[in-house]
Amino acid sequence: MKVEDVDPKGLIRESYRIEGITSPMCKTIFFDWAIQVAVGADPAEHIAFCISHYGADLPGHPMTAVLQAALAPAPKKIRRGGRAGRITESGQRRDGQSV
Hints:
Strand content: under 5%
Shape: elongated
Distance between the termini: 55 Å
Number of strands: 0
Largest sheet: none
Low-confidence stretches: none
Mean pLDDT: 87
């Protein structure tokens, strides 16, 4: 994998060069970068490459934290609202009343 393929516009590279960059700024840059990942490419591989290429020497940088968070599994949904939260898969109401 080459850096030119993973970060063709240099967005991630430049984020590491911006002095005083904040986490919200890094998130914005990350989303701009993420929407440009080629269709069919594995975003997780690209993110891991960016961490190893750019973030290895800067573990405390806000972009490194954003990239690491992007690799973390999504939190499990706990509650659904509306009708989906009241009705079980079998069609019964969760509170025991009839539908």
